């Protein structure tokens, strides 16, 4: 292959990769969700697939507000966790594998929200620390147990870099601090907020919002 043809080939691959990266995924089908039209959502303890054992407890402090702000009643997550423990469901995996209809009946919920923490970690790279959170959401009908909404969201934070020798020292110190005490809470808040409000993939406006039933163009 000549040099010109090789260059053209590489440029063509680059253009195709850009086009593929810009393709917008098809919007979700909200037919079942709108048929059920949930008002009260039960958020059960999350399944933790990360290496941080404290991730579930920290996460629970960030999920209720964005769901409530979408116009739904959210049962107090810590109270739910305690009641499930008293009912013999102390393990999150056990809760996720139990009957969603039974869970909904225990609290009088219209739907049950299951969440798994896929990533909640800080990767140390000497001069930077990449902090990552990733969650998967599944909402099931409280009467039939069928899935009426699914989504996933992730956030990545890398501290900004500085130039020069002094900058390298600052970067190394910043990275070490981020590794020792990564601040996951703001990332979790952002990921949850985006996950439940993003057009064509988040939760449609709930019954406690004026836009309830009027946002079919975006959800």
Word description of this protein:
The chain is of the alpha/beta class and 219 residues long. It has a domain of 131 residues: ABC-type transport auxiliary lipoprotein component (Rossmann fold, 3-Layer(aba) Sandwich). It contains eight helices and six strands, in the order ααββαβαααβββαα. Strands 1, 2, 3, 4, 5 and 6 form a six-stranded mixed sheet that branches. A hairpin with a 4-residue loop joins strand 4 and strand 5. The chain is globular and about 45 Å long. The termini are far apart.
Lay out the secondary structure.
Layout: H1 3-22, H2 31-36, E1 40-43, E2 47-48, H3 55-69, E3 73-74, H4 77-86, H5 92-97, H6 100-107, E4 111-124, E5 129-141, E6 147-157, H7 164-180, H8 184-197
Parallel strand pairs: 1-3, 1-4, 2-4
Antiparallel strand pairs: 4-5, 5-6
Helix pairs in contact: 3-8
CATH class of the domain at 26-120 and 133-154 and 184-197: Alpha Beta
- End-to-end separation in angstroms reads 49 Å
CATH architecture descriptor text of the domain at 26-120 and 133-154 and 184-197: 3-Layer(aba) Sandwich
Q: Any idea what the radius of gyration is?
A: 21 Å
Tally of alpha and pi helices: 8
Unreliable runs = 5-23, 162-181
Please outline the major beta sheet.
Answer: 6 strands, mixed
Mean pLDDT: 80
Query: CATH superfamily name of the domain at 26-120 and 133-154 and 184-197?
Result: ABC-type transport auxiliary lipoprotein component
Care to count the β-strands? 6
Helix content: 40-55%
Kindly name the structural category: alpha/beta
Fill in the CATH topology of the domain at 26-120 and 133-154 and 184-197.
Rossmann fold
Instruction: Report the portion of residues in β strands.
Output: 15-25%
Note the run of SSEs as H and E.
HHEEHEHHHEEEHH
Q: Outline, from the CA principal axes?
A: globular
């Amino acid at each position: 292959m000549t040099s010109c043809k090789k260059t053209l080939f590489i440029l063509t691959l680059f253009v195709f990769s850009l086009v593929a990266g810009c393709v917008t995924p098809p919007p979700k089908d909200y037919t079942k969700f709108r048929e059920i039209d949930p008002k009260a959502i039960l958020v059960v303890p999350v399944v933790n697939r990360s290496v941080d054992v404290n991730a579930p407890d920290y996460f629970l402090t960030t999920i209720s507000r964005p769901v409530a702000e979408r116009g739904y009643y959210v049962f107090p997550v810590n109270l739910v966790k305690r009641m499930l423990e008293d009912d013999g469901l102390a393990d999150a995996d056990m809760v996720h594998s139990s009957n969603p209809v039974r869970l909904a009946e225990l609290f009088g919920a219209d739907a049950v929200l299951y969440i798994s923490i896929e990533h909640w970690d800080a990767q140390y790279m000497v001069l930077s620390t990449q902090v990552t959170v990733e969650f998967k959401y599944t909402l099931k009908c409280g009467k039939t147990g069928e899935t009426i909404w699914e989504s996933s969201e992730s956030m990545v934070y890398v501290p900004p870099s500085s130039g020069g020798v002094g900058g390298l020292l600052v970067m190394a110190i910043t990275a070490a601090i981020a590794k020792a005490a990564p601040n996951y809470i703001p990332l979790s808040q952002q990921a949850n907020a985006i996950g439940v409000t993003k057009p064509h993939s988040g939760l449609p406006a709930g019954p406690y919002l004026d836009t309830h039933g009027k946002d079919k163009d975006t959800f």
